[in-house]
Amino acid sequence: QVQLVESGGGLVQAGGSLRLSCAASGSISMVNAMGWFRQAPGEQRELVATINRGATTKYGDSVKGRFTISRDNAKNTVHLDMNSLKPEDTAVYYCAADRRWWAVEAALYTYWGQGTQVTVSS
Fold first, then answer.
1. Tens of pLDDT, residues 30-43
2. SS (HEC) of the chain
């Protein structure tokens, strides 16, 4: 089993920045793909960014150029640096992990954190 704990959410004004962090524990050797997804009320969970052990990344179209995902394999953590935040970025952000080397779709991820709220005010 793998446990994921997110931190760093909060309230920020439009144009501001936040950094989300996700700490993984448990059977870490099983984890290859890690990602961030978000879900706004009434919306489906969508990809924000994903990264594997080889540091290959993919971003959702709406965050390209504004968000950066990074990973520290030695510390079993993944970060999401969010810049130029917009009100439409408001959502619960979830950290996810899976043993697959590469995964983009939420349905492919086995392990999930509890989520952290990000609210961007206009």
1. 899 999 999 999 99
2. CEEEEEECCEEEECCCCEEEEEEEEECHHHCCEEEEEEECCCCCCEEEEEECCCCCEEECCCCCCCEEEEEECCCCEEEEEECCCCHHHCEEEEEEEECCCCCCCHHHCCEECCCEEEEEEC
